[in-house]
Amino acid sequence: MSYKHIKWMILIIPTITVGLWEYIRHQFLMPYLSMEAGNWLTPVIVYLVSVTLLSKLFQVMERAQAELEKEKAAKSALEAREQMARELHDGIAQSLFLLSVQMDKADRNLSGSAHQSELQDARKTVHEIHHYVRQAIAQLKVAPHSGDLPTHPQQILQQIEDLTYSSRMESHISWTIPDEDLSTKEQIALIACIREAVLNIRKHANADSIQISGQGNAVSWKVSICDDGIGYEEDPWERADRYGLRITKDRAAEMGWDFDFHNQSNGGTCMTIEKGGHHL
After folding, report:
1. Cβ distance 127 to 244 under 8 Å?
2. 270 - beta bridge partners?
3. Which of 63, 100, 205, 235 supports an S-S bond with 201, CB 3.0-4.6 Å?
4. Rounded CA separation 228/263 (Å)
5. Residue ranges of the chain with pLDDT lower than 70?
């Protein structure tokens, strides 16, 4: 029943009740009921109808109004989060990216100097801050799982599809982990890890395609991000400029997940993140 129909029923029912009572009273009850008694019974009947029927309609209207207010509050909160995410992206994230470019240029100019190690530490710090800002932006774009805000089914899959689409590579995605099996914190951390893997593939792998799979449930799951690129020859953990890979590994460790990064036998690399692996 719509809000408009409820209001019309609240207006019409008392009118119809009084009209029916007066018709029955004058047509059938005049020999048995005095005029004074009929006048007293009219407000009593209206009151009884109001208590029984109209009170239920008022409750329905109040629930509809409360749901409407909750929906408006949720929409306002989501719009505020999106606005904050845009401001972070357009302000801090862009400034950090420019700073990282400038530091890369300074690193090339100061290559071999005594200050290169200090510059490497500064680059790592900037890279970590950039990751934290991107993680905050991703968190603001995810609707919190609470009773006050709506949730969106298969939100993670949609974000993964957006990531692979922006990478301009052919993608093959197989994802069966339900969103409700992952907490908000897990979703944010997992998307951050997948985003870093996709960025690494795009920047370093020289790959044509990327494969992302995720299978499991709330107790145990496994996510793989693989490519058909050139792989790596040197140990990636020994390279000073692989901050993103180290941060991803540290993030997985903080969440209690197993992390692995290796060359594939048929070429390319594969990153796996696993929760409760002994249950799989």
Report:
1. yes
2. 226, 262
3. 205
4. 10
5. 1, 3, 85, 87-91, 93-94, 112-116, 128, 131-132, 135-154, 239-243, 277-280
**Alpha-carbon span 124 to 131, nearest angstrom:** 11
Q: What is the spatial distance between Cα 248 and Cα 204, in angstroms, rounded to a whole number? A: 16
CB 140 within 8 A of CB 198: no
Question: Which residues, including other chains, have CB under 8 Å from residue 46's CB and lie 6 or more apart?
Answer: 14, 17, 18
Q: Name the token pair of 254.
A: 């903080």
Closest CA relative to residue 138, chosen from 96, 195, 100: 195
pLDDT tens sequence across 67-101: 888 888 777 777 777 777 676 666 676 677 777 77
CA 128 to chain centre: 23
Q: Which two tokens stand for residue 204?
A: 């370093």
Q: What is the spatial distance between Cα 236 and Cα 261, in angstroms, rounded to a whole number?
A: 9
